[in-house]
Amino acid sequence: MTDNFKEIGSLFGREGAGAGFVKQTDKESFTYAFAWPEGDTWATLTGYLNLDEQPEEYVRRVLQDGGFRSDWGNPDYDPIGDFKETAGDEYRIPLLKVLLREQLESRYEVANHFSTMNRARVELSAFIQSEGGAPLPEDALGTPEEQGIRAMLIATGEPPREVTLLPDKNGSTLKSLQALVGGNIETFDIAFGEEVSLYVNEEGLFTCPPNRAIFATEEMAKAGYLSQLDYSKVVEMGDFYTVLNGDIVAVGFDPETGESRSLTDGETARVEGYFTVISRPGSGAKAVDDIRHGITPGSYDISVESHDCTSGRNALAADAPARDAPGKDTRTSDRTRSDKKQKDRMPHPIWERHLHKCEKEREVRMMKAEKGSEIITTICEYENSVAMPDNERLTYLDTCGIARLKDGNGNASAQEAYASRCSEYLRFGHEVDLAACGVYSPYDALKVCDTPEIFLKTGFEQRPMLYTQKHLFQALTPKSDYNPHRHGFSIEQVKRFPELLASPVVLANSPTRDDVLLAILLATDAYDTPLIAGIKPDGAGNYGGREVETNMVLSVYSRQNFIRYFALLRDMDAFVFVSGKKIEALEDLSGLPLAGNCSGLDIDRILHRPKCLG
Questions:
Q1: Same domain membership, residue 279 and residue 186
Q2: What pLDDT was estimated at residue 320?
């Protein structure tokens, strides 16, 4: 209650959020003020309404559309009178809400929108005070938990703006974050220290356009982050570091509780300044274009700030004060116009050298593949690179340390074909080494292999199967209480992915995603749990400095309670293909009773078309 205004509950939107206030000026006349959350903003609606002035036919239609009674064919039926009789003396407030919602949806009334709940409350309070009411208290539109978290949205091509992350019924803001970035979220929390986190789309590198170039802040320089261009030196404040794709959300973080919180005024000003002066709209696309054409993106040079030398420095510094958003950046570039217009521009030198090296190595191997010694060397090199157990190797070292084939000359054509595959496996292994050492192109995924034949038989198109560096590092990061969702694979296990994907144990539809095919592999993790790869067909990714169509390897992982999950796949009729020999081999390897869940299936045949292919 605020003096002569009565609180009557929310008009519209999420249940329990927002509020409404009304003052009855006479029997059928009202002054109203409502606020409610709408997307990532808050909406307000204020004004005046006289129920007697609403046309009866209009009120009849509104009540009929709302499902009120059913005897509309009777010409003597009085819907307003019936509504009043049913609702009793309290009919006016419900009818007021019904009419306002109808007018709002029909655009007779236009709501105002504000970036935060607090700004909406201030607007509502000012209107109520102008009509003789008392100011609204700070919790008038909900408790702090209901009001949401103060954040900043840095949309692609737009200046940063303040938004509110509204919690769900469980108090989580995850859905709000996912809605803003357009998918699953990934944290980029190195730019502003541990108390400000940036969230982006997890698959943004492949599905979203470049948004902002990230230039090293004081925290990054002190922490010793390496330059992402050549990995040869620690970044200095202002150096180009990387590019974030898709919309970005900045949120405060409490390291003591591990939970998100609202940005402070100082943090809001610093984030706004950073993404206005330093990392400006369009900076990401420009940096990507420079890198693709062999031009090193320029650093942010504070010394050439003509409008406000301190604004750029403050946005990069760790102790940035609260301030207004700075003006337009007028800095110039070290590059000349002739640099931008050069005709025969090449990919980044490191990536160019890597591709050239891989291509030359493959050419050399295959030119000499007809020679037995080269075939043996290639196979042995691959087996060594993945630390293959002795019982699985085709080669051995004789007493002189020379690699030999266990079966002698054997089938020369089969050996040559296997050596050719090993050459491809080694290429992937080399890319894994480059990425693990930090000298792989930061904008490209790794090519695991071309799509294996078994996938083609199910209906997949022939496309390269790519694997992102993010998923590679997740695979290599050890599991712990702090990182329970990491995989803890060895680098030798990762290098076997191409070989394992070529001969999966089982292919099955994902029970949770219609766009993914699961491949159960003939390998286990450190806990003897079988590995699973998720494959998304008909995607897009970056490789070799350009975008290519791909059947993307989303992740390779293991699951707890695998035997129960395997039984679930059988119960859901999810199996697409089952290898009889390999299911027995995986049973021996893992110690799990798997073959029993495959009884009655048509083994070693494609059972049906994968759901992910439509």
A1: yes
A2: 45
d(CA 356, CA 118) in angstroms, rounded, equals: 58
Let me know whether 270 and 292 are in one domain.
yes
Q: Are residues 200 and 105 both part of a single domain?
A: no
**Residue 46 in domain:** yes
User: The whole model's pTM is what?
Assistant: 0.44
Question: How buried is residue 610: exposed, middle or buried, by Cβ count under 10 Å (0-12/13-18/19+)?
Answer: buried
Residue 572, in any domain of the structure: yes
Is residue 184 domain-shared with residue 124, that is, in the same domain? no
Do 488 and 614 fall into the same domain? Answer: yes
198 and 66 assigned to the same domain: no
The per-residue pLDDT for range 370-423, each reduced to its tens digit, is 456 788 888 999 999 999 998 889 888 877 677 888 876 667 778 888 888 999
Whether residue 135 is contained in a domain is answered as no
Please compute the mean of the pLDDT values over residues 488-509 and round it to a whole number: 93
Q: Which residues contact 439 (CB under 8 A, 6 or more apart)?
A: 230, 231, 350
- pLDDT-derived band at 248 (thresholds 50, 70, 90) equals very high
Name the residue range of residue 513's domain.
444-614
From 421, 404, 412, 432, select the one nearest 362 (Cα to Cα): 421
Sequence-distant (≥ 6) Cβ neighbours of residue 411 within 8 angstroms: none
Residue 321 confidence class, pLDDT cut points 50, 70, 90: very low
137 part of a folded domain:
no
**Residue 389 CA, distance from chain mean position:** 38
pLDDT of 324 over the 50 cut: no
pLDDT tens sequence across 166-193: 777 666 788 888 888 988 888 887 778 7
Does one domain contain both 107 and 170? no
Query: In this structure, what token pair is assigned to residue 370?
Result: 């007809």
Residue by residue, DSSP assigns 577-604 as EE-HHHHHHHHHHH----GGGGTTS-TT
- Return the C-alpha torsion angle 502, 594, 492, 495, nearest 10: 20
Secondary structure of 190-247 in HEC code, one letter for each residue: CCCCCCEEEEEECCHHHHCCEEEEEECCHHHHHHCCECCCCCCCECCCCCEEEEEECC
pLDDT of residue 294: 76
How many distinct structural domains can be found in the chain?
4
Token look-up 């980029």 returns 188
In the numeric block, which tokens belong to residue 592? Answer: 């799990």
